Amino acid sequence: MPVIRQWGELPPDAAFPASVLEASDGVSADDPSVGITELEFELPRTASPVLDELDSVRLRAVQDVLIDPSLVLRATRSEAGAIADYVCEDANQAAADSLEVDRDALIGSLLTEMLPGAVGEFLFEQCVDAVASGEPLRFDDYEVGADEGGPIRHYDIRGMPLDDRMCFTWRDVSGRIHDRYALAESRNRYRLLAEHSSDVVLLLTPEGAVEWSSPSARSMLGWDPEDLVGREFADLVQPEDRELLGSMGGHPSTAGPVTSEMRFRCAGGTYLWVAVSIGEAFDDDGVLTNRVCAVRNIHTRVQVRRDLAWS
């Protein structure tokens, strides 16, 4: 009995057209006298028009609800089989807006036309590698514009290969990068001021522990800044003066830091009269994030004042 093998899979309710049945030894699959135990058929390489249309509608619906720009790219190959470019099969409106082109004009255009220059060449190479390896494409803070003399923008880029296609999306994160740089610059500026101030500047946790100390702690108080880190600020204040700390708590509506005079313990165990100014930092939700403490040496002034009071 001839053996007929199965090349592919059909849906459970699929019919078996005679045109896709082949029996070996020249026996017809239509011959009822032949007992066929296995069927050999080859599914069409292209999906049905109904499925293509349905998938296209679904894809467009998914694309349209995405906030970020999104493209579906399909590889075009040379006669030798190498990927020559990528053609845009679908795009959402966000992609058209980002690339500043009409959506209908975007569909059918080539990747190298959409993104000419170094950026397009780089992304083309990455897409080729992703299709070959099957690995997703991912870049964070990718910089665009630095080599072209225009404004510098930063993007997070994601791509997912599917056979010869790439599902491709990106997000403009220039604002995030700008805020990060601005925050770092601000911190460096204030740290520079603190490190060159004659006052001791302490950064405290919300619980009151020293998180950072300026170098002036060494000259004023005899403490190495590293030795102050982790200590409770209240433990550095003369016990009789600690009750003053309770009245120095701030609030988001506080006009400014509160200042009090108290005695502060030096590294050698002696106490120094200081003016302590404490400000509090809150986040957008009103949650305390840090306390900033400035300590100024007023020991001589207090001593003179006390001497005059006794005279």
Classified in CATH, the superfamily of the largest domain is PAS domain
Task: Tell me the overall shape.
Answer: rod-shaped
Uncertain residue ranges = 1-12, 14-25, 32-51, 250-255
The CATH topology annotation of the largest domain reads as Beta-Lactamase
The number of helices is: 9
The counted number of beta strands is 10
Number of domains: 3
Rg value? 37 Å
Major beta sheet, strand line-up? 2-1-5-4-3
Compressed to H and E, one letter per element, the order equals HEEHHHHEEEHEEHHEEEH
Question: Which structural class is indicated by helix and strand composition?
Answer: alpha+beta
- Report how far the terminal alpha carbons are from each other: 128 Å
State the helicity in percent bands: 25-40%
Average pLDDT rating? 79
CATH architecture descriptor name of the largest domain = 2-Layer Sandwich
Beta-strand residue percentage: 25-35%
Q: Describe the largest sheet.
A: 5 strands, antiparallel
Mind telling me the CATH class of the largest domain? Alpha Beta
